[in-house]
Amino acid sequence: MSTLAALPGWVLDHHAAVLLALGEHVQLSLAALLAGGGAAVLLGLLGAGRPRLAEATITLAGVLRTLPSLAVLAALLPLLGVGFAPSFVALSILAVPPVLVGLVTGLRLADPAALDAAAGMGMTRTQRLFRVSLPLAAPLLLEGFRTASVQVVSGAALASFIGGGGLGDLVTAGVALLDLPRLLTGAIAIALLALLADLGLGLLARRVAP
Amino acid sequence: MRWTARHLDTIGYALLDHVLLVLAAIAAAALLALPLGLLVAHRPLLRAAMLGGAGVLYSIPTLALFALLLPVLGLGFVPVVVGLASYALPVLLRALLAGLDSVPAPVREAADGMGLRPGQRLRQVELPLALPVLIGGLRVAAVTLISAATVGAYVNAGGLGTLILTGLDQDHTEKILVGAALVSLLALAADRGLRALERRLGDRAGLRAAP
Fold it and tell me: Do A168 and B146 touch (CB under 8 A)?
């Protein structure tokens, strides 16, 4: 308990290091979420109206989703070295499956009657996709981004093992130095960041829901 | 592949440790999930509160959870089993409740009409019908835990993560890749195996339910 009481003081004394680690963590997570999520959206849109391609991308997502984060991070080290690059690529890969599954499921659920009506109004396939299907799929797409963001923030904590920086550095340094306040600050910050991402994107998804 | 050929026993023990970690955690979580699930199944408020709390637990990142448990439980096998069980609990709880919900009300009423006691109804009617959904939960829990257990190596729980982390420390590419490949294959195998079981049980339940 005394450690917990001393925690705010420790954070104040080391605010520069904590803010640096937090900044790195957020930067890495956002970059990976945008890159991986963007790639997933592109794949999902390509699969719209092409059931076999959509099925193939879902199978790919199923395999990628199963891969353990630490395994993906570590396996990229021999290829890309240490630091930001392998961490960014690994986390981008982890962001793909939830977004892809969310988008493909959302597009499938889009009401056929709405699509028929749009076709009757003379909309082309592309117009129907962007003006009808996509808005209807938006809540599930955002749910996908929500799951992805939690996984990416969680995975970014492991980037510390391959020199990717972030809040994981506080944990690993805390363990190495037997510095309990450092370790707890890192762990609590990582947990709060994940919960915040979960909550924030959850609220957004609920707001877009029709 | 020279290192691999010479260290097959190390690799085998790491694989065994990994499987044991996951099995122990799933068993612990299942023992907790069953009474908790039955307790809240017909109490909507309690059920919402418990699923909400469990959801928060589930989204705590692995490294953070093990680090938070470290000052309390120390290093090794037991704290990691506790941490892993806390990831499996929300998944199993959700699956149990969804499974019980999937039992049609007329079936439950018929069981009551036949004079089954609530315990008998649960064992002989509800749980068998909920089995495919339960196996689905078990699949998600197994994949999640195989992944999370990799990080457990960092707090000395053993398992395949040990190969990855010592490989990273020693700049030993082969060790890293063997660990990463094995843990990925283990996760894929668990996913495929349990999915096949889930489908087969689902088909059987479907046949049984047909008039």
Answer: no
